[in-house]
Fold this protein.
Amino acid sequence: MPEASVKASSLISVASTRRSGRDFFKASASTDQIDRIMLSGGASRVDGFHQMVQERFNAPVEEFDPFRAVTWDEKKLGDASTMAATAAVAVGLALRKASDR
């Protein structure tokens, strides 16, 4: 199978999974309007993924930046933007307190 076909097939599979998440949102939320979609994780870095999600769900798509509100010393730790897409869970866990559930 050509690389473009494999990529397209993978993107459709991921989008279908996201669609079931949207369906859950629509069933449980007080509104069915999606104002924006925030993407994170490795799949969010795949070429064409942002555009495909935007077209499928008819909503603006942004890349989630878990470092937006975190003080970051670039001299010591480097450029945070290179790892932002895959760091959301780690940053969230690091910001928790021992008493959080």
